[in-house]
Amino acid sequence: MKQMSVVADSPVHSSSSDDFVAFLDNELGASSPDSSPDKEAESQDELESVRIKRRKIESIDETEGSTSEGIIKQNLEASVEVDVCTHPGSFGSMCIRCGQKLDGESGVTFGYIHKGLRLHEEEISRLRNTDMKSLLGHKKLYFVLDLDHTLLNSTLLAHLSSEESYLLNQTDSLADVSKGSLFKLEHMHMMTKLRPFVRSFLKEASKMFEMYIYTMGDRPYALEMAKLLDPQGEYFNAKVISRDDGTQKHQKGLDVVLGQESAVLILDDTEHAWMKHKDNLILMERYHFFASSCRQFGFNCKSLAELRNDEDETDGALAKILRVLKQVHCTFFNKHQDDLVDRDVRQVLSSVRSKVLGGCVIIFSRIFHGALPSLRKMAEQLGATCLTEVDPSVTHVVATDAGTEKSWWAVKENKFLVHPRWIEAANYFWEKQPEENFIIKKKQ
Amino acid sequence: MFFHIVLERNMQLHPRYFGRNLRDNLVSKLMKDVEGTCSGRHGFVVAVTGIENIGKGLIRDGTGFVTFPVKYQCVVFRPFKGEILEAVVTMVNKMGFFAEAGPVQIFVSNHLIPDDMEFQSGDMPNYTTSDGSVKIQKDSEVRLKIIGTRVDATEIFCIGTIKDDFLGVINDPATV
Ligand SMILES: [Mg+2]
Ligand SMILES: [Zn+2]
Q: Which GO terms describe its molecular function (chain A) (predicted)?
């Protein structure tokens, strides 16, 4: 017998109701032209065909009377209702407002909220506007947080250095992650260390912000990390954006965040991921707990884990940034001269930043040409005045070598002589750093 | 809506299942194969309720497998446009809310939530009437009307509305 067997998963005469079967068939023909019965073939050698040919539905009236249930009448009403709908978005390729099937894939995908959800630009801006009012009413702003090197550090288990292998015996239980900070995620072949202070940080920040996670990691990783940071789902529920959700490769954008740009703060260690939103960004000092992470960024030093050390819990990077957040939040809501909706957190951020090195007059001495422009820009954003010629008003000489003419001048005139890292540290911690920690030694 | 219908399927059985338990083996394989699956045509097969008829088996050359045409009764679930469904809210956000009726995913956008209900953010986001008497949040049970369905090979998506009389919350988890 060479003939293939043919299976028909199709309604045949039912003892219960022929009407239903006919109705079902009509309805199916009318509403799912795309679902071919072939898709149902699930077994390799089974070929399915439907015996009952789909009746062509000329008009909705044909379904009338095919059943005694009230459903047909409702069905009729729903279908006849001709609405001029702008189709603000779609779910499962149906309009979220009128239910009509839509062709094509226009609009922005919001897969991080729910599979199959898309919204159009106008709808996004409508949602942002209404949300903005209610959020400001609650004295909150938006806060977009990066994961890697900002809130935590992860490594593949295989990349643990020999000096780090002691960590394998020190991981915290996954049964109650809220108590731990070092986790082995066997199924992902990974180990993750949360940054010190991160739990207090998130708790405090959640009082001031509606928070999103935005990572260049993939979706499963992002969700796994969100579970470690937020086991109760209080902070990031349906607000975890991964690289699978972005609209541009290797870039993060606020287009998938349902908040107005004028009310969004971003915390990330990677500045170039946010080309379009630098004014919203609080740049984070990188957290390198694992050796693999140091290597990835070209550092030849020992990792925190190898040194059996860690950032300070109460005065580390996150604690310092929390103080900045509080200051920005407070400034945003406490100045009373204009309407809340007209305020821009980017301006507040830049004004807070410009006070960090306020009053400092800086002159650079023999800084590598490539580094100079960005260093100068950084200093100016922090409120310092940068000069090119020595002048009695100069307060700081920034150099890498104590033997330059300007360095000698600084010593002679009793000015501060500091390493460029003094500016970078002020930029990370939003605070003028003690100059004595950035003294430069004379080169031999 | 649930339907009790008769479907037919050709079941292939390995010779090791032959013998006096043949019928039982066929039935349990059938249940394993079809229950919980979704077909674009009929919706979700909820349960096999009975066997109408098992036809004569056809032995296939070479393999020794035998194909039996089996007619079986089953309960299927398939939502329709215009149908009123009761569903459990799974997620609430500023766009609206998502709900589930069994395996069916339903989205009710805020365009289709009554205008007097406003979104409240927070750790338990919800839609609440201005007087606070009605609240939709996660785990609320709602009665909604389906205005669009899309049945794929493996999934069913629906668009729902509660902007009509007698629709909305039927059981608020916060009050029980
Ligand atoms: Mg990062
Ligand atoms: Zn529409």
A: metal ion binding; RNA binding; RNA polymerase II CTD heptapeptide repeat phosphatase activity
